[in-house]
Amino acid sequence: MTSRGRSGVDFKAVPWNQAFTSILRNQGLTYEPNPWDGGIIRVMSMEDQERDLKRKANEVSADQWKQLTTIVIPIEYGKPKDIADNLKDFLTKDKDGKQIGSIKVDEHSNSLIVSALRQDLDQIDVHY
Question: Which member of 30, 33, 82, 108 has the lowest number of beta carbons within 10 Å of its beta carbon?
Answer without folding.
Answer: 108
